[in-house]
Specification:
alpha/beta, Ribonucleotide Reductase Protein R1, domain 1, 3 domains, five-stranded mixed β-barrel, 9 helices, binds guanosine-5'-triphosphate, binds zinc ion
């Protein structure tokens, strides 16, 4: 049977096989081969007569995140807000860059649209080529559109604390937060103090990760790649990258740089380029052996 690991706890893997949960141990060979099955992994399992199972193989991963440890995310739902707590665009750009490097699509949701309308930033992400939504968990604006975007996908929600992630999940599926709260209470730990990740299936077929690590993404630094790779994490730079005068152009202050020309022409947003420069400088500080 094939399924997805929804939860991993104390050596047990809870595998969702089309709606039925099988509690599994992993085969010893994983330890020998230094493979650690992750939440989100697609696996094949054997079910014994007593209903317990073993994870036999981990199918190839589409992508993999470290903090939190989760695999095969189809869509990163980046929640931002123009109202308190106002989201720093750099945080959006950093987490989106991490997703881009891993082949994971991002959708940007400007929540609390009922309170503040950061129209300029909205247009920045729309123009850069991301699905971008105006959302209010309060009055329901954009919730149906988000529901359609995430249906049948494995999604992770991220955004600074208080931006409204739980509220949006609740608006998507009333009762969701209660469910999450229950689980954390059983563990005796606060929802955001634990590193454990769990997947939940919503009624529209979306599978969402309640990801404490992503919600505190301000702790992280850089995107974990070589400086010259950061440019590829900014999708709207792509048309200009081979038009710079010099090979190996850093697009920071070089003469004849096509990216800087696009910036001056308003084709690339200032805040996006600022984030690029900051991530590029950060990447230079990371020693090669620490890159992922
Ligand atoms: N007016 C308004 N308030 C909102 C909206 N979304 C969330 N809020 C309020 O913002 C506060 C924080 O919302 P949460 O859903 O707890 O935010 P969160 O991102 O899950 O926060 P953490 O759990 O700390 O990561 C709550 O008081 C919500 O009622 C919205 O669209 N409009
Ligand atoms: Zn350049």
């Amino acid at each position: 049977m094939e399924g997805i690991i929804f939860k991993a706890l104390s050596g047990f893997y809870y595998v969702d096989c089309g709606g039925r949960t099988v509690t599994c141990r992993a085969r010893g060979k994983f330890r020998h081969e230094k493979i650690k099955p992750l939440v989100g992994d697609r696996v094949s399992v054997t079910v014994q007569a007593d209903g317990s199972g073993t994870v036999d193989t981990v199918l190839p991963r589409k992508n993999e995140f470290q903090r939190p440890a989760v695999a095969n995310i189809d869509l990163l739902v980046v929640v931002a807000s123009g109202a308190v707590p106002v989201t720093d665009p750099f945080l959006i750009d950093r987490v989106v860059a991490m997703a881009e490097r891993r082949g994971c699509e991002s959708v940007i949701c400007f929540n609390k649209w009922d309170l503040e309308q950061p129209q300029g930033l909205f247009e920045t992400y729309q123009k850069a080529g991301f699905p971008t939504l105006r959302v209010s968990a309060e009055n329901g604006e954009g919730i149906d559109a988000l529901s359609t975007l995430i249906a049948e996908k494995v999604c992770a929600f991220t955004g600074n604390s208080g931006v409204g992630k739980s509220s949006i999940l609740n608006a998507l599926e009333p009762g969701f937060h209660l469910q999450v709260g229950d689980v954390s209470d059983k563990l005796g730990r606060g929802r955001h103090t634990t590193r454990h990740v769990e997947l939940y299936r919503l009624k529209n077929g979306a599978v969402v990760a309640d990801t404490p690590g992503f919600s505190s993404f301000e702790e992280e630094t850089g995107v974990g790649c070589a400086p010259e790779e950061v440019q590829y994490a900014f999708r709207e730079f792509a048309p200009y990258l081979d038009r710079c005068r010099f090979v190996g152009c850093a697009h920071v202050k070089e003469k004849g740089c096509a990216v800087l020309e696009a910036l001056a022409a308003g084709e690339i947003a200032q805040s996006r380029h600022d984030s690029y420069v900051r991530l590029y400088e950060q990447a230079k500080e990371v020693p090669e052996w620490e890159r992922k």
